[in-house]
Amino acid sequence: MTEYISCSTEETERIAEDLAKELKKGDFVAMYGDLGVGKTAFVRGLARVLAPCASVKSPTYTVVNEYKGEKCKLFHFDVYRIEDDDDLYSIGFYDYLRKGISVCEWSENIPWAIPDGAFTVTIERVAEDINKRKITITKG
């Protein structure tokens, strides 16, 4: 487990860039954190390394965005509105997992579907500063 303190969106993205350098095809990044803590900013940092031409936006309504990378694709999920395994099957979730690197916001909504060995990224606000975040990264 590694913990970081980020004081800005740019720092959050840089922390993600460092993680991106470790990722390979088939890896899964399960993201946890409240609304507005910087999960999508973290994905922007990942994409800067994995899919440099990507314009990262939250897939809140599309559920998944696909970004073409140089070595493999990056799949960005937002499962906030997913309720059960049928919902995951209907979006092709399990098919995506073997095709590239997957990063999933709101992973707490699908604990049964997180692959063994997944990276876990938890982003939390730090009470004394509205811009400060604690980012915890673990490798399952």
Determine the CATH superfamily.
Answer: P-loop containing nucleotide triphosphate hydrolases
Biggest sheet character: 7 strands, mixed
Stretches where pLDDT falls below 50 for ≥5 residues? none
Q: What percent of residues are in strands?
A: 25-35%
CATH architecture: 3-Layer(aba) Sandwich
Roughly how many Å is the radius of gyration?
14 Å
CATH class descriptor: Alpha Beta
Strand order of the largest sheet: 1-7-6-2-5-4-3
Query: What number is the mean pLDDT?
Result: 93
Helix content estimate:
10-25%
Structural class: alpha/beta
- Summed up, the helix count is 4
Query: Ends: how far apart?
Result: 10 Å
Order of helices and strands: EHEHEEHHEEE
The number of domains is: 1
Strand segment count = 7
Structure notes:
By secondary structure, the protein is an alpha/beta fold. It has a single domain (12-109), classed as P-loop containing nucleotide triphosphate hydrolases (Rossmann fold), CATH 3.40.50. It is 24% helix and 32% strand. The protein is built from four helices and seven strands; from the N terminus they run E-H-E-H-E-E-H-H-E-E-E. It has a seven-stranded mixed β-sheet, covered by helices on one side. Strand 3 and strand 4 (73-78) form a beta hairpin. Helix 1 (9-20) packs across helix 2 (39-50). The longest helix is centred in the N-terminal third of the chain and has 12 residues, at 9-20. It is globular and about 40 Å long. The model has no long low-confidence stretch (mean pLDDT 93).
